[in-house]
C-alpha cells in the first residue's frame, strides 16, 4: 500500500494550502484508490501562519481591539493553544500592509504599536511561549511602537519566550537594511528611505547606550525584518529568529509524518529562484531528502531557466501546463483545484513510484 504525503503552501490569491492538499489527494486516489494520503497544509511563517496553525493544531481564536498601522482602531486575531500557554500570531494582523489604504502608505508614519498590544494581551493571559510570523509589514519603525505598547501595558520585562518566524536575513540598516530594501515597497520615496535609515541607526545607538543591545546586534541576520521589528524583538524580548517553514514543520512533526512514505508532493503559487531560499517547498525538500523520500514540486507557475529546481526535485511541473486559458481564469479556485487533480492523476498514471 502506497503512502503519499501532500504538503502544500497556499497558492496566494487562488486556493488555500488545505484546498491544494485536498485537490492533490483526489488525484492520488484516482490512480491509487487504496493509497494512504496525509494532507499537511503548510506556511513559511508569513501571512497565513495562524490559519495554517489552526488547521494542524487544536487552538482557540482570540479577538482583540488594537491600534492599526496608522493608530486607527482595528480588530486583530491570534490563536491560543488549549492550555493557554502558547500563542500563535502574525504581526500583519495588527501592522500589515493591507491594513493601510494605497494612497496612505507611508512608512515614516506607520507603527507597530498594535503588535505590542497583541503581545501584551497574550502575556496577560499567562502565555509562556509566543510564536510570531513577521511577514507583510507596513512599517519601518524598528519596533519602537511595539516597545511603547509593551511599556504602556507593563509587559516589557517578561520571561515569556518569543520565537519569530523570519525568512529574511537583512541587517537593521545600511544598503541591505530595512529601509533601503523594504521601505520602497511600503510607499517610501527615495528621500524618505534615507531619513528612515538614519532613524534606524539612531535607534540602534539608543539601545546600545541603554545597555539593551550589543553593538553587533543590528547586523544579526533578520534584524531588518518587518521594518526593523526583528531588531526590537531580539533586543527587548530576547527573541529567537528561525526559518518560518522549519518552525511549522516541527510543529506538525513532519519528520515523523514522512517516515515510510513512498512520495512527498509539495508546491506553491509560483516556484522560481526564491523557492530554495526558505520557502515551503525547500523546507519540505530538505527534510524529505534526509529521510530518502522522493519529492515532486507542483506549482501554479514554474520559472526554472537555470535548471536549479529540476536539479533538486525528483519532478517539477506546473499544474497549468497545456492549459491556454487566461491567467485570470486559471486563478479561479475551482479551475486551480481541477488542474491540480488532473495533473496529479496524469503523473501518477505514468509514474514508477
Quick tags:
5-stranded parallel β-sheet, alpha/beta, 353 residues, 14 helices, single chain, 6-stranded mixed β-sheet, globular
Describe the structure.
- The protein has helices at residues 17-31, 49-56, 92-95, 113-124, 144-152, 178-182, 190-209, 225-237, 244-251, 254-257, 280-290, 308-312, 327-330, 333-349, and strands at residues 3-8, 36-39, 60-67, 73-80, 86-90, 129-133, 161-165, 240-242, 263-267, 270-271, 295-299, 301-302, 315-318.
- By secondary structure, the protein is of the alpha/beta class.
- A six-stranded mixed beta sheet has the order 3-4-5-6-7-8, sandwiched between helices.
- It starts with a strand and ends with a helix.
Spell out the blueprint of helices and strands.
Elements: E1 3-8, H1 17-31, E2 36-39, H2 49-56, E3 60-67, E4 73-80, E5 86-90, H3 92-95, H4 113-124, E6 129-133, H5 144-152, E7 161-165, H6 178-182, H7 190-209, H8 225-237, E8 240-242, H9 244-251, H10 254-257, E9 263-267, E10 270-271, H11 280-290, E11 295-299, E12 301-302, H12 308-312, E13 315-318, H13 327-330, H14 333-349
Parallel strand pairs: 1-2, 1-9, 5-6, 6-7, 7-8, 9-11, 10-12, 11-13
Antiparallel strand pairs: 3-4, 4-5
Amino acid at each position: 500500500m502506497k503512502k503519499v504525503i501532500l504538503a502544500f503552501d497556499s497558492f496566494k490569491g487562488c486556493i488555500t494550502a488545505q484546498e491544494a492538499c485536498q485537490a492533490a489527494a483526489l488525484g492520488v486516489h484516482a490512480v491509487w484508490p487504496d493509497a494512504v494520503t496525509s494532507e499537511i497544509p503548510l506556511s513559511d511563517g508569513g501571512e497565513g501562519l495562524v490559519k495554517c496553525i489552526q488547521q494542524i493544531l487544536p487552538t482557540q481564536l482570540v479577538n482583540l481591539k488594537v491600534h492599526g498601522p496608522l493608530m486607527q482602531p482595528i480588530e486583530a486575531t491570534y490563536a491560543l493553544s488549549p492550555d493557554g500557554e502558547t500563542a500563535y500570531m502574525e504581526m500583519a494582523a495588527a501592522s500589515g500592509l493591507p491594513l493601510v489604504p494605497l494612497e496612505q502608505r507611508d512608512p515614516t508614519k506607520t507603527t507597530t504599536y498594535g503588535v505590542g498590544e497583541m503581545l501584551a494581551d497574550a502575556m496577560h493571559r499567562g502565555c509562556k511561549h509566543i510564536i510570531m510570523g513577521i511577514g507583510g509589514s507596513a512599517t519601518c519603525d524598528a519596533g519602537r511602537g511595539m516597545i511603547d505598547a509593551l511599556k504602556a501595558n507593563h509587559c516589557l520585562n517578561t520571561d515569556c519566550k518569543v520565537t519569530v518566524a523570519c525568512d529574511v536575513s537583512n541587517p537593521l540598516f545600511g544598503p541591505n537594511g530595512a529601509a533601503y530594501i523594504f521601505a520602497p515597497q511600503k510607499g517610501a520615496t527615495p528621500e524618505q528611505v534615507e531619513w528612515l535609515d538614519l532613524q534606524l541607526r539612531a535607534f540602534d545607538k539608543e539601545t546600545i547606550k541603554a545597555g539593551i543591545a550589543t553593538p553587533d546586534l543590528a547586523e544579526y541576520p533578520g534584524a531588518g525584518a518587518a521594518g526593523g521589528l526583528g531588531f526590537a524583538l531580539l533586543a527587548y524580548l530576547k527573541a529567537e529568529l528561525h526559518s518560518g517553514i522549519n518552525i511549522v514543520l516541527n510543529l506538525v512533526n513532519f519528520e515523523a509524518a514522512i517516515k515510510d512514505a513512498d512520495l512527498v508532493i509539495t508546491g506553491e503559487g509560483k516556484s522560481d529562484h526564491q523557492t530554495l531560499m526558505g520557502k515551503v517547498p525547500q523546507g519540505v525538500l530538505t527534510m524529505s531528502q534526509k529521510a530518502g523520500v522522493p519529492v515532486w514540486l507542483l506549482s501554479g507557475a514554474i520559472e526554472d531557466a537555470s535548471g536549479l529546481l529540476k536539479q533538486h526535485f525528483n519532478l517539477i511541473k506546473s499544474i497549468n501546463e497545456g492549459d491556454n486559458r487566461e491567467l485570470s481564469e486559471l486563478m479561479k479556485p475551482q479551475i486551480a483545484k481541477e488542474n491540480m487533480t488532473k495533473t496529479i492523476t496524469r503523473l501518477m498514471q505514468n509514474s514508477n513510484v
